[in-house]
Amino acid sequence: MDNGVRFNIPHCTGKETDYLQEAVATGKISGNGMFTKKCQAILEKITKTPKVLLTTSCTDALEMCAILMEIQEGDEVIMPSFTFVSTANAFILRGANIVFVDSRADHPGMDEDKVEDVITEKTKAIVAVHYAGVACNMEKLRSIADRHSIFLVEDAAQAIESEFKWSDGRESVLGSIGELGTLSFHETKNIQCGEGGALLINKPEFEKRAEIIWEKGTNRTAFWRGEVDKYGWVDIGSSFLPSELNAAFLYAQLENVVAIQKRRLEIWEQYYTGFQPLFETKKVRAPFIPNYAANNAHMFYLVCVSEEERTNLIAHLKSVDIHAVFHYQSLHASPYFKNKHDGRPLPWSDTYSKCLVRLPLHLHLGTEDVARVITSIRAFYSKKR
Ligand SMILES: *Cc1c(COP(=O)(O)O)cnc(C)c1O
Predict the structure, then answer these.
(1) Domains of the chain, start order
(2) Which of 18, 183, 211, 295 gives the lowest tally of CB atoms within 10 Å of its CB?
(3) Nearest alpha carbon to residue 340 among 81, 62, 60, 69
């Protein structure tokens, strides 16, 4: 019997296998069928985005962004160093130079105030990554991008159903503010289908070409709609669309998005309340949510005072069968990139690489499991000092 608390267990709503059977029964399980269209319709509603295309991953959606923006050899793309490799890889594949920006002192997200310093004539795009589903300051980034006539892309992989509040009180769903946005449905995300993603297209001029890139560079999507009488090779592209099997699974999750988010938020709040004594005595730093950002409870993390303390904390939790993990290692210092980096120190990114720890947060956790994690961490800190 497993009495441990695992870091992640993918949640199933119960309808996934029904919809998979339904998809099989239709006799068409390649992409862009009934379930793909249903998922896209729900996502367009949730994100308030005019056009959504399902993709096989968020990585693929980011690669589509790079093709749509016509990123070329030597173009510069600005993004945080504290992010997943795919944020950068998608643009590296087109020959771009990545210019990494440090994280904020109060949050692992990119320091918006450092972005303008690194803009040059070659800058083509800024990629905002909403770490932990917590919005970047999109008002600042949108205005920088507009002032310099460059693209703004949102890597909203972790940010489904999260929002940004503008200073005039309006609210925008994350992924709908940049010209393009991307979501992930990897099994570690709030809504999942094993591997999956979506491209959010907020600039209508991109729609037609996005459909072509999505379908291996052909106009097959327009052909299915009866807009052309035969389909052929019209542009570059790849196989970015998922099969109906993935879409059928995903549909069961999207139908339950409200209940899933509600339970995740309860867990998040239980952690936050349980750790108050540690936050108040500054033994460990709490996750920060600026007042312009919503919380979609993608992640609960703590920031330790040192790498050594984090190592000890993770080991302590492991000894009581609780699985906690660290997260990104600064991309500017990675084996692949370190010789390409321009040498600017990015100390906050390095701090989060060394000191941030993520706690279990998934729908298989009961109140008593969360309480056990809280008790174990509080015990670790009371023993220490
Ligand atoms: C998960 C994640 C990705 C990659 O998503 P996939 O669907 O696994 O390709 C990209 N960026 C960020 C910030 C992520 O968290």
Answers:
(1) 16-255 (3.40.640.10), 257-384 (3.90.1150.10)
(2) 18
(3) 81
